[in-house]
Structures are given as C-alpha cells and as structure tokens.
Amino acid sequence: MREYFDWIEREKPKSEEYEFWKGKPEKCHGRIETRKILVASADWLEEKAAWKDICKIIRYECTREINGVKTVSVRHYISSFDTTAEQFGEIIRGHWSIENQLHWMLDVSFREDAAKARKDNSPLNLNILRKIALAALKSVTLGRLSIRKKMMKAARDHSFLSSVIFKR
Length: 168
Prior knowledge:
Elements: H1 2-11, E1 18-22, E2 26-28, E3 31-41, E4 56-66, E5 69-79, H2 85-110, H3 122-139, H4 147-156, H5 158-166
Antiparallel strand pairs: 1-3, 2-3, 3-4, 4-5
Helix pairs in contact: 4-5
C-alpha cells in the first residue's frame, strides 16, 4: 500500500482513481499541524477478497511542528466506506480525539501513567478495570462533580459507592 501511494504522489497517474485533500495548518497547544489525506480505490488489491466489503485505502499524513522541530507521521487505513478524502480526515481525527481524551481521563483521574503494574497481564487487567470504573462514575450525575471528586465521595460514602456500582 505504501509503495502504491508513493507511486500515486510521484506520478499522479490519470488512469488511477484517487482523491487528495490537504487541510489548512492548525495552530493549537504550541504546535502547528497540517494533515494530508490520499484516498484510492481498493480494486487493484490482489488480497481484496480477504477483506469483507473493502472499498477504499487511505494514507493519512500529519506534519507536526513544535518549537521549530517538524515530525511527520504516516498511517494507512482500509475502509468499507465510499466517501471523500476530507470526510475520511474528519473520521480519523475524530477517532484519535476520542482515544486521546480517554487516555487523558485515565491518566488524570486514575494516574494511569504512574502505575507500577508491569508483570504479565496486570497492566491490561487494571486498564480494563479503570475503564469500567470511569464509565460507572461518568454515568452517575451528581451536580457538576468531577470524576476525581466522585471517586473521593465513593471512598468516603458507602451508599454513594453502592449507587455507582449498582446504578441505584
């Protein structure tokens, strides 16, 4: 796939079905990011039959500049959607936004990055338990209490803890 996209960018063949989109530079949190999306038909793939309903292949390139230092990350995707390059950009960005927000919540509320569990499956098991606890705490509406404050309240108030666990 990488070689195919490199060829498209280099040769720009008229015989191939592809679409290119480049976003405007975005300045946020002390960095400048520019995204490029290249979408092509998956019809040429010999392995297409192994992928149910595959329609498009996507190259997502993000150039990030922080304090004058540029880094480029390139990801490749396959999709059963038949949509525009710009729309794929929004879908991909939305996915990573959700992932980053979840990680941030786990780190801030549960201090996951400081966890010492390293042996066997314990990091994965604890991560799953933290996600379950986060979902349970989010489902409880108690004014405008943060997740951290709900955790403190659950530690001190057994009836509140019971309502979090058993959804009462």
